[in-house]
Structure prediction request, 185 residues.
Amino acid sequence: MYQDIIKNIKPNLDRVLEKVKQEISVLRTGSASPSLLENVMIDCYNSRMPLIQLAAINLRDARTLLIQPWDKAIIKNIEKGIIGSIPGLSSAVDGDIIRVNLPSPSEETRKELVKSLHQRLEEGRVGIRVARENVWKQIQDLERAGKVREDDKFRAKDELQKLIDEYNNKIKEIGEKKERDIMTV
Prediction:
């Protein structure tokens, strides 16, 4: 019975992990990445839309992204949205393509990015802890109701902790990789 409760926590943990990945993908590293601009919101067509729905974002070189809008009429809107979203970016319209140049971040900027990274990783770990506490409470309620024996309760606690440790390690690995990317000149 407790196995089902533990299995049901996995989708929640996966959502926490995906949220962490999405949030840290926008942190700028030393090199350009299309994911840096994918979720930038652009004002066009009387609404706000993510850039990924309006244009193709390609990597030209380590410091340059090329944005090719599907509708040439909104090229100025896209340029304005990009410049307003991430400080320090410079862009230039070249025909029907926008070139976005990323300057190399200073040492101070890199340290601030790492600090922000650690905050976002901690938010992910908090999400995992909240999920663990909810499941542990459910297991304790089952034991109080007489549906699970005490030794099964502690077996469930061990299984739950093993799963939580697995997801915490995944967050740690993601964070370490991103921190290396940020600190690489």
Q: What stands out?
A: Residues 2-25+106-183 form a domain with the Topoisomerase I; Chain A, domain 4 fold (CATH 1.10.132.20). The mean pLDDT is 86. Residues 13 and 128 are 6 Å apart (CA to CA). The chain has two domains: 2-25+106-183, 34-101.
